[in-house]
Amino acid sequence: MPKRRSLRMLLFVAAAAVLVMSVRFGFADAWVDHYAFPASSLYELPAAAAPSAIEAKSEPGPDVPQTLQAAILSNRITEYHISVVLDERNGALSGEQTVTWKNPGRKAVSDFYLHLYPNAFAPGSTFLKESGGQLRGDKKKEGSDGSVELTSLTTMQGETLMPRIRYVQPDDGNKNDRTLVAFRLPEPIQPGKSVTLQMKFKVKLPDVFARMGKAGDFVMAGQWFPKVAVYETAGMRGRAAEGWNLHQYHGNSEFYADFGIYSVRIDVPESYKVAATGFLTKSPSVSSGRKSFLFYAEDVHDFAWSASPNFEYVEESFSSPGIPGVRIKLYIDPLHKDLKDRYMHAAKSALAKLGQWYGEYPYSTLSVIVPPASGNGAGGMEYPTLVTAASAQNDNPGYELERTLVHEVAHQYWYGLVASNEFEEAWLDEGFTSYTEDKLMASIYGVLSNLPVEASYLTRPEPLNLYSWKYSSSEGYAENVYLRGKLVLTSLERQVGDKTMSKIMRTYFQKYKFKHPSFSDFQKVVESVTKENWDDFFLAYVRKGEAADYSVQSIQTRKTDSGYENSVLIRRDGGSPEPVSIWLQFQDGQSLRKKWDGAQSQMLIKLESPSPLLYAAIDPSNNVVLDNRKYNNYLKAEVPAKQRTRFATSIAQMIEGLFGSMAW
Ligand SMILES: [Zn+2]
């Protein structure tokens, strides 16, 4: 359309201007490097063939390139230039990368750390020990190991650092775990200065398990390359002194990385389609039965890709307030090709709402992968500008299709843009995303979650600021980080009202996009928006793992000369005070509603009435979403204690409701 074309032209002019400035003044090296990068000198790639017939001006297709955006949105600590070749016969990746890291601190840095995540799938790893080879309802296939081996590590001057590397296990001392590698640099990197390292690596893909691997000719490459750890500066996330944030890859843990630039060449068989973070900067080249794609992404903190010859490809452009213009690209398993409109509808609607509620989606693409049923473990996962939907298990799924997809799209905001430390404070991405997922499902599809039933499933409340692997079990992790985290935000919303809550979430997003906040930063936003102190609330529900238990403890009714004297004892165990209503029902049909501020742990209500009390209920409209013991909210009067009936909910129903869909 004419309007979009002129916008693109404007962007192109702006990009060209920045490029010229970059060359002249020497900043933003990536711009120059990216285009001048001599791929053939560093990488043994197939010789470039004649450009593909598909050009930028042709109809949208998977291989149509895009131009760069002009703005620099993040601090761009890291810059990766990667070249990777898929060895589809052996299920392996062969990679080379040049990584530049800028010291963001005020001290010189001598030691350097890389995450080698695929080693989680090697025997003896902490990940396998903790998970028992099972994750998210998926099981690791016997004998299907995965790994990454660093085969070369040098400085730009060619000095090898390989003899310096040592595997470190700061969390558990498990010497068989090789997911984090350390080495000393030849010279310290001064504050504000950069170091560039070159490395070669080989990845053995496991059969798809825990987000990555191969399934037939489907490949999901997530967390596949040696990735620099995060160096946190003083004051960041409450840190007193600057330093590396170092953790291994755990059973219950996702990831943490700095924002930067990725330029990634991916070489696959010619028949494959490739979905990846970012966008293509030029049409893929084809040579000797191989196809080479060059993807580029900036202001993102990870790069994932997926390839398969079987993907059905669908693309549409979309814009709405807060979404300046995005190409939504679907890579669908053939079983779901007729469901493309459902995926597209969910992706567009979710983006539109997120843009409207929180702020702009600053990227030009969003790619959605629908893995095959055999690649189930790759489903329901988020990466910057790329998400995986639930795998295609049957041809007519229920709302779990939409629920999983909107959850992952919501992660573009809570994870992709507001980039929490998922090792240490997983609820900041999963709890926030689950909360947003509920809002999206309600506002797009009118599908409401049954919160009282979900709350009843909170059997092991644990603090939300626990490191991911410190939870009692993977169920405890999911229960708290996803569900209780979501309920904490819902509880806040119930107390401050929808409008104020929207303002809190928007303010938090705007303030911390492209940053790594902690929950204290969120609390500060809550307090600045509401102009109230929320210490009690965050202490009870985040620092401590509490739930709220409001209950009717006892009812006593006594006949008097003029009628009846009723005494009702109500209690609050745990949680932070919040006002609740109390419903008193009398035998003659009269009823009375009272309010209690919940400030004390209990209150005795005494009242006289012409008719005796029949029952009392506290919080009958289930406003206290963190009350996980609803069965004691109701008590019938004048019945011997052992016969008192209480409302209970079916455990089976709760489990079904909670884990019906798998989305992380
Ligand atoms: Zn999630």
Automatic annotation (TrEMBL):
Q: What are the binding positions for Zn(2+) in this chain?
A: H407, H411, E430
Cofactor(s) listed in the protein's UniProt record? Zn(2+)
| UniProt cross-references to SUPFAM superfamilies, sorted A to Z | Metalloproteases ('zincins'), catalytic domain
Q: Does the keyword Zinc apply?
A: yes
Q: Which GO terms describe its molecular function?
A: metallopeptidase activity; zinc ion binding
Keyword Metal-binding applies? yes
The alphabetical list of record keywords is:
Metal-binding, Zinc
- UniProt xrefs under Gene3D superfamilies: Neutral Protease Domain 2
In this protein, the active site sits at E408 (proton acceptor), Y482 (proton donor)
Q: What is this protein identified as?
A: M1 family metallopeptidase
InterPro entries the record matches: M1_LTA4H, Peptidase_M1_dom, Peptidase_M4/M1_CTD_sf
Which CDD domains does the UniProt entry name for this protein? M1_APN_like
What does the cofactor section's free text say about binding? Binds 1 zinc ion per subunit.
Pfam families cross-referenced by the UniProt entry: Peptidase_M1
Q: Which residues form the Peptidase M1 membrane alanine aminopeptidase domain?
A: 356-538
